[in-house]
Amino acid sequence: QVQLVESGGGLVQPGGSLRPSCAASGITLHIGTIGWFRQAPGKEREGVSCLSSSDSSKYYSESVKGRFTISRDNAKNTVYLQMNSLKPEDTAVYYCATEFYCKAHVSGSFFYTEPNYWGQGTQVTVSA
To answer: pLDDT tens for residues 82-110?
Structure first.
């Protein structure tokens, strides 16, 4: 049984940092593409970042480029999202997901297919 468990969300002031993590069981993360998505109240789900399994390329949405970094610890079977210079508009539930395809998009963001596996999400709130 595949399980993805996120942790590390929380409340942070604007300009602060958080590093949510996503621990996997029942699946080996470095074999498949992994990524982070988010959904704010009343908004559609947004792809935040992905780490491609084909060539280990990392992609980011335009809204987080330069502030967020995706990484993976193969020994711990865990993926992280380092979030710096957080803004109130980053407030959302953040989800990790795996087993999908992503590639660069002409918009500067990235294209992705629907992931097969999702975590339960972790709340990130950026507020003074």
So the answer is: 999 999 999 999 999 999 999 989 988 99
